[in-house]
């Protein structure tokens, strides 16, 4: 039977959800107008005042926010409460520009941890479970977010953080961990290491995993589920909006329920900024309607995604977001064609490979070069040249079918591509250098 952490909220009727959103949005707009001069100026420039926002129907009148606003207001220009009300900060792991610093009041932390608790229960967690949190602890939101959620549910929480794979496996076995939380790429690596240690899924006490923080495909889900003998649940979120738990998967494993009592989602055309109709693919935009210390109105996530209002058999009524294809800024344009690393991953896993690969893009004589190094699995490893050539050609064809352009594929020996403990780095784009 499906269990919920907060059934009343998670299974509320559409009328109730709309009522909550209307009330909270009106309050939140007043809050930012009164407390965040930067956003008030943006509203004034757009010719909107709090009086214009009477319900979610008026959401479209509000100006968007993006990474550029965060950079401009660094470090604390978006703070919505007096500093003495702030109890925590987190920060993004961005590689370019200034890091984003997100501030939390105690109320914001409670809301965030409740969202994560909903995810833990939806993945089958209860007081009887041992949850090993192997996302990084510290400025990254993964570790402390899932830790807080797991503790709220009453699970015995193991704050492992990332790294030291052997110790991770030892603790899973010795403490009988039933749920693991980490990035999907690290889950795949854990599975690979356990296999090398001679452990079969039956030797591993885990029953479920809560994986997110990076794009991962359905094929990767199947592969992780098979190697670890678990059910793998997706979880989505971003630092700007709190962290993990903005959306979470239920037993249906078919899209992530957005915590609509705290976040309103829209899909827009990234070029025209027009709000797109139900079911269309576009950029995901979120408005946090009750986060006080670091309010975020119509934040452009850059994640490319679709929303579904279809009824879910789990009983939850929150709308669902599909697995994001990736970020629009991760999308590579190679010889004019849009390529997401997640599409390459799908082809590799369909052909029996693991998601251990690296994409190297360069520009030679004004033409893009597109190389993909793919690790062979130990089972398929061979040094027979004609076998390798045949396998490479099959992959090239599979990729052409998926992407419409030709890549140069090189198969490399097992364990030659660096593993990641957090978000995997799949792309080396030398064209930007
Ligand atoms: O990655 C928060 C998080 C931690 C989510 C642990 C889930 C689990 P940031 O570091 O700010 O926050 O990165 C946010 O990561 O805009 C997406 O591009 C990507 N992302 C997060 N979850 C998913 C997911 C955390 N389930 C950025 N699928 C987001 C695909 C995801 N991409």
**Helix proportion range:** 25-40%
**Radius of gyration from the alpha-carbon trace, in angstroms:** 22 Å
SS-derived structural category: alpha/beta
Total beta strand runs: 21
Largest sheet: 9 strands, mixed
CATH superfamily heading of the largest domain? ANL, N-terminal domain
Estimate the global geometry from the Cα principal axes: globular
Spatially, the strands of the biggest sheet line up as: 4-3-5-6-7-8-9-14-13
CATH fold naming of the largest domain? Rossmann fold
Q: What distance lies between the first and last C-alpha atoms, to the nearest angstrom?
A: 54 Å
Question: Can you tell me the number of structural domains?
Answer: 2
Q: Which regions have little confidence, pLDDT < 50, spanning 5+ residues?
A: none
Count of helices?
A: 11
CATH architecture of the largest domain: 3-Layer(aba) Sandwich
List cofactors, ions and other ligands. Answer: 5'-O-[hydroxy(phenylacetyl)phosphoryl]adenosine
Portion of residues in beta strands equals 15-25%
In CATH, what is the class of the largest domain? Alpha Beta
Query: What does the average pLDDT come to?
Result: 95
Describe the structure.
- The protein is an alpha/beta fold and 433 residues long.
- It has 2 domains: 7-17 and 68-327, Rossmann fold (3-Layer(aba) Sandwich), CATH 3.40.50; 334-429, ANL, C-terminal domain (GMP Synthetase, Chain A, domain 3), CATH 3.30.300.
- It is built from 11 helices and 21 strands.
- The protein has helices spanning 7-10, 14-35, 37-45, 67-72, 106-122, 141-153, 165-174, 184-196, 218-228, 341-350, 385-403; strands at 86-91, 101-105, 130-133, 156-158, 179-182, 208-212, 231-238, 243-249, 256-258, 263-268, 282-288, 299-305, 307-308, 320-321, 326-327, 332-334, 337-339, 357-364, 367-375, 408-412, 427-429.
- The protein has a 9-stranded mixed sheet. It has a 4-stranded antiparallel sheet with strand order 10-11-12-15. A 4-stranded mixed sheet has the order 20-19-18-21.
- The termini are far apart.
- The model has no long low-confidence stretch (mean pLDDT 95).
- The structure holds 5'-O-[hydroxy(phenylacetyl)phosphoryl]adenosine.
- 5'-O-[hydroxy(phenylacetyl)phosphoryl]adenosine binds at residues 92-93, 135, 141-142, 212-215, 234-239, 243-244, 301, 303, 323-324, 327.
């Amino acid at each position: 039977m499906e269990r919920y952490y907060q059934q009343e909220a998670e299974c509320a009727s559409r009328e109730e959800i709309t009522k909550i959103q209307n009330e909270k949005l009106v309050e939140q707009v007043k809050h930012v107008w009164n407390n965040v001069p930067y956003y008030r100026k943006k509203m004034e420039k757009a010719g909107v005042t709090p009086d214009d926002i009477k319900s979610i129907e008026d959401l479209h009148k509000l100006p968007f926010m993006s990474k550029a606003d965060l950079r401009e207001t660094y470090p604390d220009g978006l703070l919505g409460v007096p500093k003495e009300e702030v109890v925590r900060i987190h920060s993004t792991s961005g590689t370019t520009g200034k890091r984003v610093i997100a501030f939390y009041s105690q109320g914001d932390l409670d809301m965030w941890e409740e969202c994560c608790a909903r995810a833990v229960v939806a993945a089958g967690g209860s007081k009887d479970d041992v949850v090993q949190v192997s996302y990084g602890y510290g400025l990254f939101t993964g570790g402390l977010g899932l830790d807080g959620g797991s503790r709220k549910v009453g699970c015995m929480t193991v704050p492992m953080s990332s790294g030291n794979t052997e110790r991770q496996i030892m603790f899973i076995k010795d403490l009988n961990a039933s749920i693991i939380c980490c990035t999907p790429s690290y889950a795949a690596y854990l599975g690979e290491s356990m296999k090398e240690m001679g452990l079969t899924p039956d030797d591993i006490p885990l029953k479920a995993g809560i994986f997110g923080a990076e794009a991962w495909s359905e094929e990767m889900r199947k592969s992780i589920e098979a190697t670890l003998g678990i059910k793998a649940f997706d979880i989505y979120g971003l630092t700007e909006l709190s962290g993990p738990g903005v959306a979470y998967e239920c037993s249906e494993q078919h899209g992530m329920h957005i915590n609509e009592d705290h976040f309103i989602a829209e899909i827009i055309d990234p070029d025209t900024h027009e709000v797109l109709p139900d079911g269309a693919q576009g950029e995901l935009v979120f408005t946090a309607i009750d986060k006080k210390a670091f309010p975020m109105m119509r934040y452009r996530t850059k994640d490319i995604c679709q929303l579904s209002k279809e009824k879910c058999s789990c009983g939850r009524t929150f709308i669902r977001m599909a697995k994001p294809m990736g970020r629009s800024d991760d999308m590579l344009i190679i010889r004019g064609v849009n390529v997401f690393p997640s599409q390459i991953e799908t082809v590799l896993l369909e052909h029996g490979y693991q998601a251990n690969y690296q994409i190297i893009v360069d520009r030679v004589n004004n033409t893009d070069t597109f190389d993909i190094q793919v690790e062979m699995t130990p089972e398929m490893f061979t040094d027979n040249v004609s076998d390798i050539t045949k396998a490479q050609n099959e992959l090239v064809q599979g990729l052409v079918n998926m992407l419409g352009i030709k890549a140069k594929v090189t198969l490399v020996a097992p364990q030659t591509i660096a593993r990641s403990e957090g978000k995997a780095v799949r792309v080396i784009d030398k064209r930007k250098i």
